[in-house]
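User: Run a structure prediction on this.
Assistant: Running it now.
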Amino acid sequence: MASIVKRNNRYCVVYTYKHTNGTLKQKWETFTDLADAKNRKKEVEYKESVGTFVAPQCRTLKDLLKEYVTLYGRTKWALSTYQSNTALISNYIEPLIGSMKLQDLTTRVIEGYYQRLLKYEAVDPMCGKRQHQYVSPGTVRSVHKILRSAFEQAVKWELMEKNPCIYATLPKYTAKKRDIWTAETLFHALEVCDDPRLRLCINLSFSCSLRLGELLGLTWDCVDITPESIDAGRASIYINKELQRVDVASLDALENKNVITRFPSLNSRCTTVQVLKSPKTDSSIRTIFLPKTVAEMLMKYKAEQDMTKEALGAEYTDYNLVVAGPLGMPTEQSTINGALKRLIEKNNLPKVVFHSFRHSSITYKLKLNGGDIKAVQGDSGHAQASMVTEQYAHILDDDRRLNAQRFDDFFYQHHGAEPEALPRAEQSTPKASPVDTDAAAALAKLLADPSMATLIKNLAKNL
């Protein structure tokens, strides 16, 4: 049995366990939150009742990480997070500092390790092969995130006195700017695209702000494109799953956690498999309304797919996928990425990755609705509105120029007068076109909304 003891502002889960030498010892695990302490108490008592409980006993970092993944990772991490984190541990942490004793891991040691890591050869997370390039500062930050969390658990388990990662200095990191196409380039690409599947994928990603995994995991039972819905402007898709290729070992370790469908592997020696799984967060589950043109495009695509099913008969394995392979199997992300790369090279288009269409989508939606972040967040599936403002508020060159003009019109030409305090007739300059009037009204609405403060800062940086 375990008990909870409050010490100062912390909660300790206290229990007795049998040491490897056969003696009974008492263990105290400290938590800052009472709910976490109660959950740990229940976990200890349950595992004791079924005979599977093992108290954390770690001497080296490798021992700690093994316990950390078993006790924390398997219960807290989603499948993709488990796969990426265990790859980082095996490729970058254990080979370099895994044998170090926990008491020898100081902030100074951790900072030195980060510097060594920058001169360490990067490893492909899927196949484990060297990539003939050094580890990036972004990867170092991902490693830091794992270590900080693991050491935090070690402090709770009273294996360490303090977390050496809290004050560790990280290498300077600059996020790479993701290029996107202008609307003109996008529609030119759609005109010259002779691959119906790729054309549909681009249109869906752009109009619905979809991630590629969400797009490839979309099934027809989650698509409402009846003529009545289209006429009423209610045509929609429901996003509640995603397609992903995952490591079989990770899948087995998590006991098919959040997996809806596990597709058969075409090669018995393959160490990865495609699955349909639930999204990482509840906010990713959402309904997205379709533009009429895209809804009609889906109707046509479904009719052609139904003809293919009828022609192939039993040879077609029907998983009800919208974007399916020639015989009904799920489409690999590499297939779509490869088709996009060929389209770009063949037509001399600006180089972008497929995820850029999601960025473009969110960009233009912010521009069209005057910065209504909540409306865009509902389509994009971001957990927090700040993620939209910080990561996706791209402003194209022409719009940056127009924003500068509008700021001049509102603030400088009116000598600092607040835009929302002006009479509606004065919100546009004399002889302004209807388009300019609408733009000015949209900006006034944007500036009047307190939730847009962060977005305005991002806009100002680009002026």
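The chain is about 50% helix and 10% strand.
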